[in-house]
């Protein structure tokens, strides 16, 4: 028994404290903005020296944990239409995410970063151009087959760059279909539950996950998720939209600087 305890202490003492803090902060943002967490975690890990493919492997594990727990909390609050919306888009996301690892293996780190940057720019555009639709209280009906195709495309491209897809799905639901922002955010996080599950399986098969570091980030994130969702309930629709836009813009600014102003890239 003492040997097991000593081994456990040795393992936990080797966990960098910054990973725990990253997990707490990322989880809070995940709950508040309805993201899986990769949108924050991947650029953060890049900033402290990780290569993007290693960062993606850690991010998919965090997204798996945070999205399941966050979706459970949102479902209890009545913000998720599971059968009519989440299930068809989520199934598409599973299939798309599973195929993403083949894309990741075939392209360079710089290509992935440019793709990530492009996704963020699109998300910002949709939040801005969605305009009045984002404030609409009644959304249009969405064909389930269209939802499946949307999920398929988002799952493939989003998991390829280490995000769960909510950063694309939320603007689509709010901007194109008139979802209220809080319901769109909850649906986006539920979508991540599907895409990240497939992503974890895919990356595990490819042996591209550092499990100790991934779990070190993912477990603290659960505490952050609960706090972030609580903060979201206290925030108005208008303020939530504004903060979402600021959040997207900050991440895009960092990646744009990294790509276009000489930060070293590695294949």
Can you give a write-up of this model?
The protein has 267 residues and is mainly α. The protein has one domain (18-260). It is built from twelve helices and no strands. It has helices at residues 2-13, 17-33, 38-47, 52-76, 82-98, 100-106, 109-130, 144-160, 166-177, 181-205, 211-233, 237-260. Helix 2 (17-33) crosses helix 4. The chain starts with a helix and ends in a 7-residue tail after the last helix. Residues 3-13 and 132-137 have low confidence and may be disordered.
Order of secondary-structure elements? HHHHHHHHHHHH
By secondary-structure content and strand pairing, the structural class works out as mainly alpha
Give the biggest beta sheet: none
Bulk shape: globular
Q: Could you name the ranges where pLDDT drops below 50 across 5 or more consecutive residues?
A: 3-13, 132-137
Layout of strands and helices, then pairs:
Layout: H1 2-13, H2 17-33, H3 38-47, H4 52-76, H5 82-98, H6 100-106, H7 109-130, H8 144-160, H9 166-177, H10 181-205, H11 211-233, H12 237-260
Helix pairs in contact: 2-3, 2-4, 2-11, 3-4, 4-10, 4-11, 5-8, 5-10, 6-8, 7-9, 7-12, 9-10
